[in-house]
């Protein structure tokens, strides 16, 4: 009863208050009551203050929230910067470690990588925990940690790389074997020592299969020996033989009234001819169409050579002409060797390749020669047979006329005159070449070419024709 | 008994309607008689709105509280990790004698900021 009563009483008081207030407000609305004005102002004032406080609270909260957001943004930026730097540093360090064999941690579980992976974290852990000397770690890239295997830093073994299966069982050499090695000769030593370890060691499975490989003796063709080239070898051997003979002859022949220059030239040419056989390869063909090259068959045609006619008595071996056609017809060689005919012609081409020995004769121009000949008629007349002789010896011993040089030049001039008439009329550049050839003789400086128009010798324009003409003459 | 209850109920309803009428009447008068101040909101409504906002803010704060806590924890963790990483790098650098690029200004400030943050936490 009491709670109900109290409740009812409170309810009644509330109702009374409500009623009175309502009446009051209504009266104030109708403007019948005048005691509300202060009251209203007070209420308004309260209202305003309340609003103000609320506003302030809101502002404070807002500021706090913005501050926190700013702080978090700054934090994130700083972390980003630091992260970048640390990543750069880590990459640098990793590269340095990789240089020394550090394998980066892989997430795959392959059998081969597993060992590498195992070693890596171990090694890094070791670095952090034990702080070992880094240099040792570098040199031993896969130093396993204590957890994996107890190993002091040493040279990396095959097992470290997971390649134990390739390990060849090493058996130490026996002491008696070592003693034997000491006793035996050095040349014997190596085969025995090489054999013994071979016997001891396990030969790897991949042995050299020689079954498919037929050890065939190389045929003669492989060496370039065929029926066509057998003769060349004969020439080669002959050339070698002749070189030997020539050297003997050159030493023997006396320097009697022979000019040093021609002798030297002859010697050169002899050697050259022999060397043609013994030396290889052939000189490049100097294709000069129009330049008649003496063929092997007939030795009449002559090219700008200074080969003296007195060469006839020379040995039969080297009279072979040089064929510019690069085809050494051995038959022709023999033919030419057989015929010790007139003016054996040899191109001076090979001669040109070699710098001839400087002639000891001072070149005397022709006009002076003529003048001299007037005063000394002996020089003009008799051409002395030229013999092969040593130029040094000759120069010392030749005292006949007292003018050895003049004699030599005179003789050469005569020989040149004889040969000149056979020269083919040259074209412009050919003339130059011929001039160079003549000039290179080093004998007569001022002598120009005397191209005599020989009816039989006609110019051949084409190169091949020139070669052919050289052959045919 | 029931009659009195009914009477009370009726009286309450009457009072409520009267109050509504007064409010409406006031607003109407303000609108007509004082048009310049009609744009401003009624402080009462303002008050009401403010209270509503307040309540809403309270709920939001309650919801975001765990998030804020998580954020703080993350920050602390990040700081700790960074410190560890920096220490490790310095150690490795010492061991390898590798010349790492020196820290720039901003990096230094970042480090200090992180350290202060760690101290705050």
Automatic annotation (TrEMBL), chain A:
Residues 108-151, 447-473 are annotated as: Disordered. Residues 117-138 have a biased composition (Basic and acidic residues). Keywords: Cell cycle, Cell division, Centromere, Chromosome, Cytoplasm, Cytoskeleton, Kinetochore, Microtubule, Mitosis. Residues 139-149 have a biased composition (Low complexity). One of its GO terms (biological process) is chromosome segregation. InterPro entries: SKA3. It is found in: Chromosome, Centromere, Kinetochore; Cytoplasm, Cytoskeleton, Spindle. Belongs to the SKA3 family. This is Spindle and kinetochore-associated protein 3.
């Amino acid at each position: 009863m009491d709670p109900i009563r109290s409740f009812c009483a409170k309810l009644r008081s509330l109702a009374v208050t409500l009623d009175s207030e309502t009446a009051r407000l209504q009266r104030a609305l109708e403007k019948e009551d005048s005691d509300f004005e202060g009251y209203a102002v007070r209420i308004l004032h309260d209202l305003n203050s309340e609003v103000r406080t609320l506003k302030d609270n809101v502002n404070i909260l807002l500021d706090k929230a913005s501050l926190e957001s700013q702080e978090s943004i700054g934090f994130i930026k700083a972390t980003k910067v630091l992260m970048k730097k640390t990543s750069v540093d880590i990459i640098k360090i990793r590269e340095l470690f990789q240089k020394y064999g550090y394998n980066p941690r892989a997430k795959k579980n392959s059998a081969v990588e597993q060992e590498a992976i195992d070693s890596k974290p171990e090694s890094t852990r070791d670095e952090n925990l034990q702080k070992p000397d880094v240099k040792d770690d570098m040199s031993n890239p896969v130093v396993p940690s204590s957890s994996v295997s107890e190993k002091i830093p040493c040279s990396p073994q095959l097992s470290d790389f997971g390649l134990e299966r390739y390990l060849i069982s090493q058996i130490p050499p026996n002491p008696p074997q070592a003693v034997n090695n000491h006793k035996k000769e050095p040349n014997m030593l190596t085969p025995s020592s090489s054999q013994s370890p071979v016997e001891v060691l396990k030969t790897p499975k991949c042995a050299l299969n020689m079954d498919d490989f037929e050890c065939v003796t190389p045929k003669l063709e492989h060496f370039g020996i065929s029926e066509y080239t057998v003769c060349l070898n004969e020439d080669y051997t002959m050339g070698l033989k002749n070189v030997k003979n020539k050297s003997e002859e050159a030493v023997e022949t006396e320097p009697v009234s022979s000019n040093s220059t021609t002798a030297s030239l002859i010697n050169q040419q002899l050697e050259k001819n022999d060397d043609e056989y013994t030396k290889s390869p052939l000189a490049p063909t100097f294709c000069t169409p129009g330049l008649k090259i003496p063929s092997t068959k007939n030795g009449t045609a002559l090219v700008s050579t200074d080969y003296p006619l007195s060469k006839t008595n020379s040995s039969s071996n080297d009279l072979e002409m040089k064929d510019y056609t690069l085809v050494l017809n051995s038959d022709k060689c023999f033919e030419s060797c057989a015929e010790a005919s007139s003016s054996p012609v040899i191109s001076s081409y090979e001669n040109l390749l070699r710098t001839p020995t400087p002639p000891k004769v001072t070149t005397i121009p022709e006009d002076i020669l003529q003048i001299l000949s007037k005063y000394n008629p002996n020089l003009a007349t008799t051409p002395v047979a030229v013999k092969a002789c040593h130029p040094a010896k000759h120069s010392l011993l030749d005292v006949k006329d007292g003018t050895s040089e003049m004699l030599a030049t005179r003789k050469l001039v005569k020989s040149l005159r004889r040969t000149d008439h056979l020269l083919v009329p040259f074209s412009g550049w050919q003339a130059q070449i011929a001039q160079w050839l003549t000039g290179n003789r080093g004998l007569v400086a001022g002598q120009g070419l005397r191209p005599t128009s020989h009816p039989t010798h006609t110019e051949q324009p084409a190169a091949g024709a020139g070669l052919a003409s050289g052959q045919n003459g | 008994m029931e009659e009195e209850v009914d009477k009370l109920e009726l009286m309450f309803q009457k009072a409520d309607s009267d109050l509504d009428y007064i409010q409406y009447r006031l607003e109407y008068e303000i609108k007509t008689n004082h048009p310049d101040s009609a744009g401003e909101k009624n402080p009462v409504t303002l008050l009401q709105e403010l209270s509503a906002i307040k309540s809403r803010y309270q709920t939001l704060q309650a919801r975001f509280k765990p998030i804020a806590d998580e954020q703080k924890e993350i920050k602390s963790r990040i700081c700790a990790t960074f410190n560890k990483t920096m220490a490790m790098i310095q150690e490795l650098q010492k061991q390898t004698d590798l010349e790492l690029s020196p820290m720039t200004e901003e990096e230094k400030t970042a480090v200090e900021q992180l350290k202060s943050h760690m101290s705050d936490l």
